[in-house]
């Protein structure tokens, strides 16, 4: 396996779905809590990126092993194992190495932060594995959008903000057999509402992927959400996800959680609407699926820019 085939196996460009929420949570902590821990940042980065790559590799390996249809774009071109004729033992060894890095970074982060990160990280690991592996993987059910959105869009943002918060959000302590839990409900709710655009954006990526694959999925007995609700309803849902995201941003602005600069995000509606219209016209993995990724990157990058500017302004004033 060379670098090119490895990057295709782990589908590196799709890692924006985890890296952008990670950066958003970090900037949220800087803006809201005015705190930042370099070591914790690096440990979470290593663990998160390694695990995200591992789950993608597992998904590709599982699809390779279970594919009922061995002709068409989704098999011989899209799957890196087939395209690059990778040896199974090499793929498995790569997955194991990535998981070791992810677990090692996660354990070190838990040692730095505490029990809550262990519980949330462990649950995320479990869902990540079950998403691609097991008797009935989540990716083959109509729950893929929900689980991917919540865990990649909310849990990642929550943990990446929490590790810098100095227990301003949640405190979970284990002492002499007693577990003490204290939750600042206002801050937790603010973090959730702050995460909604990421939750819906990531769900939109998964939904677009499943819409493009709807015929192949039916042949391979992958009963995804578009298979259940139909292409027309799935396309309507795809469009609504973005408009709900903007409504959420407006609410956050009124609550004072977002800086006033967030109003500039309205400018992103122009390219977003254009991309949505193009996806409505044609749903193809090779041609238009990337539009959902572009929409997510555009919204997230714009939010990162706004938060980054707000953090700099706060530091200068």
Keywords:
317 residues; mainly alpha; two-stranded antiparallel sheet; globular
Helix coverage percent: over 70%
- Weakly predicted, low-confidence segments: none
β-sheet strand percentage: under 5%
SSE pattern: HHHHHHHHEEHHHHHH
**CA-CA gap between termini:** 52 Å
> How confident is the prediction overall: mean pLDDT?
87
Global structural class: mainly alpha
Which geometry do the CA atoms define? globular
Largest sheet features = 2 strands, antiparallel
- Record field, number of beta strands: 2
Strand order of the largest sheet: 1-2
Integer-rounded radius of gyration: 20 Å
State the helix count: 14
Describe what you observe in this structure.
This protein has helices at residues 3-9, 16-32, 38-66, 73-77, 80-83, 88-113, 115-132, 144-162, 185-212, 214-219, 225-229, 231-255, 269-281, 290-316, and strands at residues 170-175, 178-183. The chain is mainly alpha-helical and 317 residues long. The chain has a two-stranded antiparallel ribbon. Helix 2 (16-32) packs antiparallel against helix 3 (38-66) and helix 2 (16-32) runs parallel beside helix 14 (290-316). The longest helix is centred in the first third of the chain and has 29 residues, at 38-66.
């Amino acid at each position: 396996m060379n670098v090119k085939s490895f990057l295709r196996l782990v589908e590196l460009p799709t890692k924006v779905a985890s890296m952008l929420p990670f950066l958003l949570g970090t900037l949220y902590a800087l803006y809201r809590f005015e705190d930042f821990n370099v070591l914790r940042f690096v440990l979470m980065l290593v663990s998160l990126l390694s695990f995200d790559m591992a789950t993608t590799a597992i998904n590709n390996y599982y699809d390779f092993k279970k594919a009922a249809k061995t002709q068409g774009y989704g098999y011989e071109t899209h799957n890196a194992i087939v395209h690059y004729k990778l040896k199974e033992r090499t793929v498995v060894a790569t997955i194991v190495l990535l998981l070791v890095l992810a677990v090692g970074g996660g354990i070190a982060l838990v040692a730095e932060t505490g029990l809550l990160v262990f519980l949330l990280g462990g649950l995320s690991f479990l869902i990540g594995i079950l998403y691609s592996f097991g008797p009935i993987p989540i990716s083959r059910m109509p729950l893929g959008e929900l689980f991917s959105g919540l865990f990649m869009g909310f849990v990642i943002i929550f943990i990446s903000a929490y590790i810098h918060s100095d227990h301003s959000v949640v405190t979970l302590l284990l002492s002499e057999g007693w577990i003490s839990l204290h939750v600042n409900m206002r801050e937790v709710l603010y973090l959730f509402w702050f995460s909604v655009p990421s939750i819906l954006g990531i769900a939109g990526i998964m939904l677009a992927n499943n819409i493009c694959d709807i015929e192949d999925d039916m042949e391979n007995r992958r009963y995804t959400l578009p298979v259940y609700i139909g292409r027309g309803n799935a396309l309507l849902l795809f469009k609504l996800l973005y408009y709900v995201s903007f409504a959420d941003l407006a609410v956050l602005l009124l609550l004072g959680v977002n800086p006033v600069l967030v109003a500039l995000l309205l400018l992103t509606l122009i390219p977003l609407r254009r991309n949505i219209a193009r996806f409505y016209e044609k749903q193809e993995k090779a041609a238009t699926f990337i539009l959902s990724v572009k929409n997510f990157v555009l919204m997230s990058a714009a939010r990162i820019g706004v938060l980054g500017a707000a953090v700099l302004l706060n530091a200068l004033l």
